[in-house]
Predict the structure.
Amino acid sequence: MTTYAPFAKPLYVMLKPVGAVCNLACDYCYYLEKAKLYQNNPKHVMSEELLEKFIEEYINSQTMPQVLFTWHGGETLMRPLSFYKKAMELQQKYARGRTIDNCIQTNGTLLTDEWCEFFKANNWLVGVSIDGPQEFHDEYRKNKLGKPSFVKVMQGINLLKKHGVEWNAMAVVNDFNADYPLEFYRFFKELDCHYIQFAPIVERTFAHEDGRHLASLAQSEGDTLAEFSITPEQWGNFLCTIFDEWVKEDVGNYYIQLFDSTLANWVGEQPGVCTLAKTCGHAGVMEFNGDVYSCDHFVFPEFKLGNIYTQTLVEMMYSERQSAFGQMKQQSLPTQCKECEFLFACNGECPKNRFVHTATGEPGLNYLCKGYYQFFKHAAPYMDFMKNELMNQRPPANVMSATIQPE
């Protein structure tokens, strides 16, 4: 029996085929600790039975003719290539005329010619985690023996390029590399990487063993910022510096997710990154055993929606609990945010970062607020210009030849 979601929008659930298992041990990884949730499971791998169940139900749940599968980790390539070949067989078995797309996130160290040939032949988009030039990348991205990983990542990227695989970069911005924004940005341009996602790292350490408080909107007593976390000032300067080069030289050629999403909010469209969206809950995540959670950053017991063996994806993703999780983003905004001129552009960013107090003592302010405000204020005249170009059906890249005075 075919079951369809009650709303005409994609139902989106990321897959974790190996759970929280990885061949690296990056200092700032927020996901490896999730293995503690499944200590009774000796092997954190998704069975072919579960794979088939998910693929059939996921495809049947869609109301759109296009279906996107996102494979995430841990390290996704720790499953053999045969697993993903089987996934594609199952996708075709249950497609029923729909167009199936796949994207996969990897640290790049396990890529081989065989993997790349598969990705190219089947039109997979590959996201590679790389934190800039070698000195920056190797600061925190090491293997379990403490050895740097940059050389192997670059070998993987060169294989992707050799085989003509479409790929993009996911770069974590931390306390170290944030101080070198232009060196950081130009590295990706030298790699000829035209799609870049910058992710600011903000993590807390805890005075208690129970890591669930990471998902709390209020800072718990005893919590301190991890040393690799970026400061709001660093984040603002980082974004403004890169934006100044991008807006003069690279619009329409290099696509930086945060800048594109900011422009989307400026013109009233849905942004491509969930952190800047008005509500949460657009993307759930399914663990290797079928457990479904509200969000990749909220894999904690209190945000578990259920298990695919006992509830359907539609029931879980359109449940009252998931709806409440999504609305939490707007409902928990402090007065400072509600009165901010850039609320439409930021929407309070990710709730996981809302653990500081406003000047008046109100809780729920985003830790990165000052940095985002600096960026939006700086970019506003350019965003206004690009919005006007779009509204008049002209390319926003015209901003590169315009004379605009930043505020």
Q: What stands out?
A: The longest helix spans residues 369-391. The first strand starts at residue 12 and ends at 15. The CA atoms of residues 133 and 211 lie 32 Å apart. Residues 1-8, 207-222 have pLDDT under 50 and may be disordered.
